[in-house]
Design a protein that fits this description.
- The structure holds two protein chains of two kinds.
- By secondary structure, chain A is of the alpha/beta class.
- Chain A has a domain of 65 residues.
- Chain A has eight helices and ten strands.
- Chain A is globular, with a radius of gyration of 18 Å.
- The mean pLDDT of chain A is 92.
- The model of chain B has no long low-confidence stretch (mean pLDDT 87).
- Chain B is built from eleven helices and no strands.
- Classes of the chains: A alpha/beta, B mainly alpha.
- The interface between A and B is medium-sized, with 26 and 22 residues.
- Bound molecules: adenosine-5'-triphosphate and magnesium ion.
- Magnesium ion binds next to helix 1 of chain A.
- Chain B: It is a multi-pass membrane protein.
- Chain B: Keywords: Cell membrane, Membrane, Transmembrane, Transmembrane helix, Transport.
- Chain B: Belongs to the binding-protein-dependent transport system permease family.
Chain lengths: 251, 251
C-alpha cells in the first residue's frame, strides 16, 4: 500500500527558519497540491522529501521505508523549467532514470517510447531539447519522471514558466496520464485555480516559516472538466483560499 | 544562410588581398611582397627539397607536445573545476605560466635540455598545457548545478553524474580547447624552430634574409593554411560529435 508520511520536518537556512516541525501524509493515489506565498518554503519542503536538501530534523517515510536524506527510490521529480539534458534527445532524456538504474539499452528505450507516446510526442523521439517548445519540453520532463514508475511524483511549479493556453492543455494532459497510471502526487503551485482543478486535497501554507493554514478537500468528482471553473462551489473555494492567503500576508 | 557566410568570407579575403597588393606595390617587394609576387614565388618554395620534410617534421614533432598537453591538461582542468583543493593548489601556477609567452621560455629550456626533440616537445607542451587547463577549468566550474541535481534526484551516483552530466556538458568545450590549443602549439613550435634555426622555422629565418620578401610571405601563407585547415578539421569533428551543440549555435 503506497503511502507517504512526513513528520516533524524543520529546516533553517543560516538564521532564517523556513520550516518548523512540518508534517503531512499522502494516501495511495492521492493528488495533493501545496499552495502558499512566494518564499514560504514550499520548494524547500519538496526538495527535502526528494532528498536533495537535508532537513535539520524530521523523517520522510515512503511505502514503509525511511528515505530521509536520500534521493531516488520511489520518487520521480518534475522540475519547473523541465531541466532536460541538452545533449540527450527526447527519448534519451526520458530513459535517463532507467539508464542510471542499469536497465539495458533496448529495454529502456522501449519503455521510454511508451511514455513518449503517452505524453503525445510520437515522432519527436530524436529531437534535441532546444528544438522543442517549452510545453513539449515539459511533456518530456513529465515522461522522464513517469518512466521510472515512481510511487510518488514530486512537481515544483511544473507549469509556472508556460503561457496560459499551454498550461491549461498540460494540466489536462497531466490528469489524463496520472489517471492512466495513478500514483501519489505532491504538486507545488502558486495558482489557486490550478490547485482546485488538479488536486484531491490542498494544503494552504502560511508565509515563512511555512505552516499549514488550512487543509481543503476538493469536492469535485473526476474526470473533471473545464466548466467546473464556473461552478459556484469552485468560485466559493477560490475566494476562501485567496482570502486566507491575504489575511496571512497582512497579519 | 550557408552560402551567405561563404560569400562574406570570400569577400573578406578578396578585400584583404587587394589592400595587401596596394600596400606591397607602394612599399616595394623588399619590404612587402605583393600577393601576385608571392603566388609566383610559391611554386619554387613548394618544390624546394627541404620544404616538405621540414613541414612534416614540424607538424609531427608538434603533435607529441600537443597531445601530451591535452592528455594532462584535460583531466587536470576538470579536477580543478570540480575540486576546491585542487583548484587552490594549481591555480597560482596556471595564472603564472599562462602570462609567460613561449618565446620567453626558449632560452631557459635550451640551457636545460639542448635543442633536440625533448626541447621542442617541452616548449609546445608548456605553451599549450596552461591554455587547455584554464579553459577546461572554467567550463567545468560552469556545469549546471541544476542538471547535476536532476541527475542526483534520479539517484545517480557520483560516477554516473560525472559520466552522464559533467562529461557531456564539457564535450563542446573540450573540442574548443583542442582547437585553440592547436594554434598555441603551432605558434610555440614555430617560435622554437626559429630560435634554433631548424626545420620550418629555419626556412622562415633563411627566407627573412632574402632580398625579396616574397618567399617569406609564401611560407607565412603556408603556415596560415596549415593552421586554418587543422582548426577547420577539428571544428567539423566537433560538429559531428556534438550535434546538439552545433545545431544550437548554427555552426
Ligand atoms: N540554499 C538556500 N540558502 C539560503 N536560503 C535559502 C536557500 N534555499 C531557500 N532559501 C530561502 O528559504 C526560503 C524558502 O525558499 P523556497 O524556495 O522553499 O520558497 P518557495 O515557497 O518555493 O517560494 P516560490 O514560491 O517563490 O518558489 C526563502 O526565503 C529562500 O530565500
Ligand atoms: Mg519554489
Amino acid at each position: 500500500m503506497a503511502h507517504l508520511s512526513v513528520t516533524g520536518i524543520s529546516k533553517t537556512f543560516g538564521t532564517v527558519p523556513v520550516l518548523v516541525d512540518q508534517s503531512l501524509e499522502v494516501e495511495q493515489g492521492e493528488f495533493v497540491a501545496l499552495l502558499g506565498p512566494s518564499g514560504c518554503g514550499k520548494s524547500t519542503l519538496l526538495q527535502i522529501i526528494n532528498g536533495l536538501i537535508p532537513a535539520d530534523s524530521g523523517r520522510v517515510v515512503l511505502d514503509g521505508e525511511d528515505i530521509t536524506g536520500r534521493t531516488g527510490s520511489g520518487r520521480g521529480m518534475v522540475f519547473q523549467g523541465a531541466d532536460l539534458f541538452p545533449w540527450r534527445t527526447a527519448i534519451e532524456n526520458i530513459a535517463f532514470g532507467l539508464q542510471v538504474k542499469g536497465v539495458g539499452k533496448a529495454e529502456r528505450l522501449e519503455r521510454a517510447r511508451h511514455y513518449l507516446e503517452l505524453v503525445g510526442l510520437r515522432g519527436f523521439e530524436n529531437a534535441w531539447p532546444h528544438q522543442l517548445s517549452g510545453g513539449m519540453q515539459q511533456r518530456v520532463g513529465i515522461a522522464r519522471a513517469f518512466c521510472i514508475q515512481p510511487s510518488l511524483l514530486l512537481m515544483d511549479e511544473p507549469f509556472g514558466a508556460l503561457d496560459v493556453q499551454t498550461r491549461d492543455i498540460l494540466q489536462d494532459e497531466l490528469v489524463r496520464i496520472w489517471e492512466a497510471e495513478p500514483k501519489m502526487v505532491l504538486f507545488v503551485t502558486h495558482g489557486i485555480e490550478e490547485a482546485l482543478y488538479l488536486a484531491d486535497r490542498i494544503l494552504v501554507f502560511s508565509k515563512r516559516p511555512a505552516r499549514v493554514l488550512s487543509e481543503i478537500k476538493v469536492p469535485f468528482a473526476r474526470p473533471r472538466h473545464d466548466d467546473m471553473k464556473l461552478d459556484p462551489e469552485f468560485l466559493r473555494l477560490r475566494r476562501e483560499i485567496s482570502e486566507l492567503l491575504r489575511h496571512d500576508l497582512e497579519a | 544562410m550557408q552560402l551567405g557566410r561563404l560569400t562574406t568570407n570570400i569577400l573578406g579575403i578578396v578585400l584583404v588581398l587587394i589592400l595587401w597588393q596596394a600596400v606591397g606595390m607602394h612599399l616595394g617587394d623588399a619590404l612587402v611582397a605583393t600577393p601576385v609576387q608571392v603566388a609566383k614565388a610559391l611554386p619554387e618554395t613548394l618544390t624546394d627539397p627541404e620544404f616538405w620534410p621540414a613541414l612534416g617534421l614540424m607538424i609531427g614533432q608538434m603533435m607529441i607536445g600537443y597531445l601530451l598537453a591535452l592528455a594532462v591538461g584535460i583531466p587536470l582542468g576538470i579536477a580543478m573545476g570540480r575540486s576546491r583543493p585542487v583548484f587552490t593548489v594549481v591555480k597560482p601556477w596556471a595564472s603564472m605560466f599562462i602570462v609567460v609567452s613561449a618565446a620567453a621560455l626558449v632560452p631557459l629550456l635550451i640551457i636545460l635540455m639542448g635543442r633536440g626533440l625533448l626541447f621542442r616537445t617541452c616548449i609546445v607542451f608548456v605553451a599549450t598545457l596552461w591554455y587547455v587547463v584554464v579553459s577546461i577549468t572554467e567550463a567545468a566550474r560552469a556545469v549546471s548545478p541544476r542538471l547535476l541535481d536532476v541527475a542526483k534526484s534520479f539517484s545517480a551516483s557520483d560516477f554516473q553524474r560525472f559520466r552522464f552530466v559533467i562529461l557531456p556538458a564539457l564535450y563542446p568545450y573540450l573540442l574548443i580547447a583542442a582547437r585553440i590549443g592547436l594554434i598555441h602549439a603551432l605558434r610555440a613550435m614555430v617560435t622554437a624552430e626559429m630560435f634554433i634555426g631548424a626545420g620550418f622555422g629555419g626556412l622562415l629565418n633563411n627566407a627573412g634574409l632574402d632580398l625579396s620578401t616574397a618567399p617569406l610571405f609564401g611560407l607565412i601563407v603556408v603556415l596560415m593554411l596549415v593552421s586554418a585547415g587543422a582548426t577547420e578539421l577539428l571544428r567539423r569533428v566537433a560538429g559531428r560529435a556534438a550535434p546538439w551543440y552545433a545545431s544550437r549555435t548554427g555552426g
